[in-house]
Amino acid sequence: MTKSGRFLWKHRNLFFIYAFSMLFVFQLATPLSYADDDKESAETPDSVESNLIDFNRYLSEKLDHWADKLDVYLSDKRFTDKKNKTAVKINYFTRYEEGGNTDSSFNFNLDLRLPNMEEKWALTFTSYDEVEESRGVRSTQQRTQPRQRNYGAGLALLQELGRIRTTFRPRLELKDPLQTRYSLMFESTADAKPYRLRPKLELFADSEQGTGQFVSINMELSTDTRYSINLFSEEQYQDAKNLFTTTHGFSVGTAVTKNSQMGPAVSFYSTNRESFHLEDMTVSFGFSHQPYRKIIHYSLNPYSRFSKLDNFKGHVGVTLDLDLIF
Questions:
Q1: How many CB atoms lie within 10 A of CB 161?
Q2: Which residue segment(s) compose the domain that 13 sits in?
Q3: Is 114 a domain residue?
Q4: Number of domains in the chain
Q5: For residue 271, how far is the Cα from the chain centroid?
Q6: Closest Cα to residue 229, out of 198, 256, 195?
Q7: pTM here?
Q8: Do the beta carbons of residue 69 and residue 302 sit within 8 Å?
Q9: Dist CA 82 CA 159 (whole Å)
Q10: What pLDDT is stored for residue 255 in this prediction?
Q11: What is the 3-state secondary structure (H, E, C) of the chain?
C-alpha cells in the first residue's frame, strides 16, 4: 500500500465524517424539490411499478375485508361505518460494519383494528416487542442492531388526560413458560413557535427482568418548512440490573422532497457500570424515503461508532431499514 493509501486508511473515520459533512452542505445548497412522489398508476398502466402498487392495494383491501367480517362477527352487529384500517407491516433490517460484521432480521407486525368493538384500544400481533424496540434514539433514528425476535400479542389502551396522551400496553410473549410485559406511557407536546417540546415518561415491567423507567425530553427547532434541529436527552433505569443509562445529542433534518428527508445525528451514550462513564459516541447521516406512503418506507443510515470497549477507535458501518405495508 502506498504512503498516501496508508494515510487515508489510518484516518478513514475522519474522512467518513468529512464526507457526511460535505453531503449535508451540498444538500443545504440544493433547491428543494416538491415533486409528487405518489405516482398514479393510471399514468403508466403497464409498468412493473404500477402492477406492484395494484397488487399491494388488492391485498390491503382483502385484509380490511376479512378484518371487518371478524369485527362484525365478534360484536354481533354493525355499530359504525368507519373504514377498517387493519394493517400488516413486514420489516427487513440489515447492518454491515467494518471488519465484516453483518446482522439482519426479518419481522412482521399485524395491527388488527376492530372499529365496531373498540373505541380507544388496538390489538397487535408482532414478532418483536414494538415498545422496547422503539424506545429512544438508539432504537429508531440511530439503530445499529437488528430487532430481537420475540413473538407475542399486545393490547394498547389509549386515553387522553387533558393534553397528556396516556397509553397502557400489556403484552403476552410466546415463550416457555409464557412471559408478560407491561408499559404505561405518558406523552405530551408543547408548542411555542418555532420551538416544540416533547416530554415522555414510560414505566415498564417485565416478568423476567423486573421494573424500569424511561424519560425523554426532545426539543425541536423548525427554522422553516425545510430544516429542523432536534435536541434530545434520554435516560433509562432498569431495577433488576441496577443499570442506569443516558443518551444526549442532536440531529438536523433537511426535507429533500415531501416524502423524504436526510441529515446528520450525533449521540453520546453513557452508563453507570461499573462507574458512570461515556460508553460510546455515534455519528450518523441518515436518509429516509417513502416512495409510496403507507406502502413502502425505507431508510439508509451510514454511521461511525467510537466505543470505550475499542478505546474510542471509530468503526464505520451502514444500515438499511425497509418496511412494506399492506
A1: 9
A2: 3-37+110-292+300-318
A3: yes
A4: 1
A5: 22
A6: 195
A7: 0.76
A8: no
A9: 20
A10: 87
A11: CCHHHHHHHHCHHHHHHHHHHHHHHHHHHCCCCCCCCCCCCCCCCCCHHHHHHHHHHHHHHHHHHHHHHHHHHHHCCCCCCCCCCCEEEEEEEEEEECCCEEEEEEEEEEEECCCCCCCCEEEEEECCCCCHHHCCHHHCCCCCCCCCCCCEEEEEEEEEECCEEEEEEEEEECCCCCEEEEEEEEECCEEECCEEEEEEEEEEEECCCEEEEEEEEEEEEECCCCEEEEEEEEEEEECCCCEEEEEEEEEEEEEEECCEEEEEEEEEEEECCCCCEEEEEEEEEEEEEEEECCCEEEEEEEEEEEEHHHCCEEEEEEEEEEEEEC
Q: What is the mean pLDDT of the chain?
A: 81
- pLDDT grade, residue 140 (50/70/90)? confident
CA distance 22 to 274: 39
**Angle at CA 216, nearest 5°, toward 124 and 129?**
25
Mean pLDDT, range 101-106, rounded to an integer: 86
For 158, half-sphere exposure in the C-beta direction (CA atoms, 13 angstrom radius) is: 8
Q: What is the domain-level CATH number for residue 114?
A: 2.40.160
Which of 74-83, 118-127, 140-149, 267-276 holds the top average pLDDT? 267-276
206 domain-assigned: yes
Grid coordinates in use for 114? 376492530
Separation of CA 243 from chain center: 23
| Residue in the block written with cell 416487542 | 129
271, part of any domain = yes
